[in-house]
Amino acid sequence: MKDLAIRDDMAPTVSLLYSAAEENMTRLFSIVNHMTLEQLDYKGRSKTKNSTAQLLHHIANVDIRWVWRIKENRIPEHIIKLYGPMINENGCLPEVKGQPLHYYLNRLQHVLTELRNVCVTLKETDVNRELSYDKDTATIRWGIWHMADHNRYHQAHIEALKAEWRKDITENAL
Model pTM? Predict the structure, then answer.
Protein backbone atom coordinates (compact mmCIF):
# COMPACT_ATOMS: atom_id res chain seq x y z
CA MET A 1 0.00 0.00 0.00
CA LYS A 2 1.28 3.46 -0.86
CA ASP A 3 1.12 6.08 1.88
CA LEU A 4 3.11 8.95 3.28
CA ALA A 5 4.75 7.92 6.53
CA ILE A 6 4.31 9.74 9.79
CA ARG A 7 7.67 9.37 11.49
CA ASP A 8 8.08 9.20 15.25
CA ASP A 9 11.14 11.47 15.17
CA MET A 10 9.31 14.42 13.53
CA ALA A 11 6.31 16.58 14.30
CA PRO A 12 3.25 15.26 12.41
CA THR A 13 2.98 17.99 9.75
CA VAL A 14 6.74 18.13 9.28
CA SER A 15 6.81 14.35 8.94
CA LEU A 16 4.08 14.35 6.32
CA LEU A 17 5.86 17.02 4.26
CA TYR A 18 9.25 15.33 4.65
CA SER A 19 7.71 12.02 3.63
CA ALA A 20 6.41 13.61 0.39
CA ALA A 21 9.88 15.00 -0.37
CA GLU A 22 11.51 11.65 0.43
CA GLU A 23 8.98 9.71 -1.67
CA ASN A 24 9.58 11.96 -4.67
CA MET A 25 13.34 11.69 -4.28
CA THR A 26 13.07 7.89 -4.19
CA ARG A 27 10.92 8.00 -7.32
CA LEU A 28 13.43 10.30 -9.03
CA PHE A 29 16.25 7.86 -8.22
CA SER A 30 14.27 5.01 -9.79
CA ILE A 31 13.60 7.09 -12.93
CA VAL A 32 17.26 7.91 -13.53
CA ASN A 33 18.70 4.63 -12.27
CA HIS A 34 21.11 3.10 -14.81
CA MET A 35 21.23 6.16 -17.08
CA THR A 36 24.46 6.38 -19.03
CA LEU A 37 26.55 9.52 -19.28
CA GLU A 38 25.31 9.99 -22.83
CA GLN A 39 21.69 9.81 -21.64
CA LEU A 40 22.35 12.22 -18.76
CA ASP A 41 23.83 14.79 -21.13
CA TYR A 42 21.21 14.31 -23.88
CA LYS A 43 19.44 17.59 -24.70
CA GLY A 44 16.80 16.26 -27.07
CA ARG A 45 16.83 16.00 -30.83
CA SER A 46 17.06 19.75 -31.20
CA LYS A 47 19.84 19.89 -28.60
CA THR A 48 18.04 22.85 -26.98
CA LYS A 49 16.33 21.22 -24.00
CA ASN A 50 17.66 21.01 -20.48
CA SER A 51 19.46 17.70 -20.08
CA THR A 52 18.73 15.26 -17.27
CA ALA A 53 22.11 16.25 -15.81
CA GLN A 54 21.04 19.90 -15.78
CA LEU A 55 17.71 19.01 -14.19
CA LEU A 56 19.31 16.86 -11.48
CA HIS A 57 21.81 19.63 -10.76
CA HIS A 58 18.95 22.14 -10.65
CA ILE A 59 16.86 20.06 -8.24
CA ALA A 60 19.80 19.68 -5.85
CA ASN A 61 20.61 23.38 -6.20
CA VAL A 62 17.06 24.52 -5.40
CA ASP A 63 16.60 22.02 -2.57
CA ILE A 64 19.84 22.73 -0.74
CA ARG A 65 18.91 26.40 -0.72
CA TRP A 66 15.56 25.51 0.85
CA VAL A 67 17.27 23.41 3.50
CA TRP A 68 19.47 26.36 4.44
CA ARG A 69 16.53 28.78 4.43
CA ILE A 70 14.80 26.45 6.87
CA LYS A 71 17.95 26.03 8.98
CA GLU A 72 19.03 29.64 9.26
CA ASN A 73 16.69 31.70 7.09
CA ARG A 74 19.69 32.48 4.90
CA ILE A 75 21.88 30.68 2.41
CA PRO A 76 25.57 30.75 3.39
CA GLU A 77 28.09 31.89 0.82
CA HIS A 78 29.91 28.52 0.91
CA ILE A 79 26.72 26.75 -0.23
CA ILE A 80 26.23 29.24 -3.06
CA LYS A 81 29.83 28.66 -4.17
CA LEU A 82 29.60 24.87 -3.81
CA TYR A 83 26.35 24.51 -5.76
CA GLY A 84 26.96 27.34 -8.21
CA PRO A 85 24.47 29.75 -9.68
CA MET A 86 20.81 28.88 -10.14
CA ILE A 87 20.83 30.30 -13.67
CA ASN A 88 23.46 31.46 -16.13
CA GLU A 89 23.89 34.95 -17.59
CA ASN A 90 21.16 34.17 -20.15
CA GLY A 91 18.61 33.21 -17.50
CA CYS A 92 18.87 29.50 -18.34
CA LEU A 93 19.96 26.53 -16.27
CA PRO A 94 23.75 26.35 -16.19
CA GLU A 95 25.43 23.92 -18.56
CA VAL A 96 26.58 20.82 -16.71
CA LYS A 97 27.82 17.67 -18.36
CA GLY A 98 30.38 14.94 -18.16
CA GLN A 99 29.55 13.87 -14.60
CA PRO A 100 28.50 10.26 -13.96
CA LEU A 101 25.09 9.49 -12.47
CA HIS A 102 26.47 8.78 -9.00
CA TYR A 103 27.74 12.37 -8.80
CA TYR A 104 24.19 13.73 -9.07
CA LEU A 105 22.64 11.02 -6.92
CA ASN A 106 25.16 11.64 -4.14
CA ARG A 107 24.36 15.36 -4.18
CA LEU A 108 20.63 14.67 -4.08
CA GLN A 109 21.05 12.13 -1.28
CA HIS A 110 23.09 14.66 0.67
CA VAL A 111 20.30 17.23 0.28
CA LEU A 112 17.71 14.70 1.49
CA THR A 113 19.89 13.81 4.49
CA GLU A 114 20.29 17.50 5.33
CA LEU A 115 16.53 17.99 5.02
CA ARG A 116 15.90 15.06 7.36
CA ASN A 117 18.42 16.47 9.84
CA VAL A 118 16.66 19.83 9.92
CA CYS A 119 13.16 18.32 9.96
CA VAL A 120 13.82 16.34 13.14
CA THR A 121 14.55 19.65 14.89
CA LEU A 122 11.30 21.35 13.85
CA LYS A 123 8.29 21.60 16.11
CA GLU A 124 4.72 21.53 14.80
CA THR A 125 4.42 25.31 15.14
CA ASP A 126 7.67 25.91 13.21
CA VAL A 127 5.94 25.11 9.91
CA ASN A 128 4.22 28.50 10.17
CA ARG A 129 7.50 30.42 10.42
CA GLU A 130 8.13 32.74 7.50
CA LEU A 131 11.34 32.61 5.50
CA SER A 132 12.80 34.94 2.92
CA TYR A 133 11.98 33.70 -0.55
CA ASP A 134 12.30 35.30 -3.96
CA LYS A 135 11.79 38.93 -2.86
CA ASP A 136 8.89 37.75 -0.70
CA THR A 137 8.31 35.29 2.12
CA ALA A 138 7.09 31.71 2.37
CA THR A 139 6.39 29.43 5.29
CA ILE A 140 8.52 26.43 6.15
CA ARG A 141 5.44 24.32 5.37
CA TRP A 142 5.32 25.75 1.84
CA GLY A 143 9.09 25.37 1.41
CA ILE A 144 9.14 21.65 2.16
CA TRP A 145 6.04 21.10 0.02
CA HIS A 146 7.73 23.05 -2.79
CA MET A 147 10.77 20.78 -2.61
CA ALA A 148 8.57 17.72 -3.15
CA ASP A 149 6.47 19.37 -5.86
CA HIS A 150 9.44 20.82 -7.74
CA ASN A 151 11.16 17.44 -7.81
CA ARG A 152 8.04 15.76 -9.19
CA TYR A 153 7.60 18.51 -11.79
CA HIS A 154 11.06 17.90 -13.26
CA GLN A 155 10.55 14.14 -13.22
CA ALA A 156 8.10 14.67 -16.07
CA HIS A 157 10.79 16.48 -18.06
CA ILE A 158 13.25 13.66 -17.42
CA GLU A 159 10.70 11.03 -18.49
CA ALA A 160 10.06 12.98 -21.72
CA LEU A 161 13.81 13.15 -22.42
CA LYS A 162 14.13 9.41 -21.82
CA ALA A 163 11.29 8.72 -24.27
CA GLU A 164 12.86 10.99 -26.88
CA TRP A 165 16.23 9.30 -26.31
CA ARG A 166 14.71 5.83 -26.82
CA LYS A 167 13.00 7.01 -30.02
CA ASP A 168 16.26 8.49 -31.35
CA ILE A 169 18.18 5.32 -30.55
CA THR A 170 15.56 3.17 -32.29
CA GLU A 171 15.42 5.38 -35.38
CA ASN A 172 19.20 5.66 -35.62
CA ALA A 173 19.56 1.88 -35.36
CA LEU A 174 17.41 1.31 -38.43
Answer: 0.94
CB-CB contact of 137 with 145 (8 Å): no
Cβ-based neighbour number of residue 63 at 10 Å: 27
List the beta bridge partners of residue 138.
131
**Assigned domain for 88 exists:** yes
Q: Please check whether residue 4 lies inside any domain of the structure.
A: no
Q: Is residue 165 part of a domain?
A: yes
Instruction: Give pLDDT tens digits for 144-166.
Output: 999 999 999 999 999 999 999 99
CA-CA distances (angstroms) from residue 74 to 65, 97, 132, 134?
A: 8, 29, 8, 12
Exposure letters 149-171 (e unless 16+ CB within 10 A, then b) = ebbbebbebbeebbebbeeeeee
What values do phi and psi take at 96, rounded to 5?
Answer: -135, 135
- With respect to residue 166, please indicate whether it lies within any of the assigned structural domains: yes
Q: Which domain holds residue 146?
A: 12-173
Q: Does residue 32 contact residue 109 with C-beta atoms inside 8 Å? A: no
Torsion angles phi and psi, residue 8, rounded to 5: -70, -25
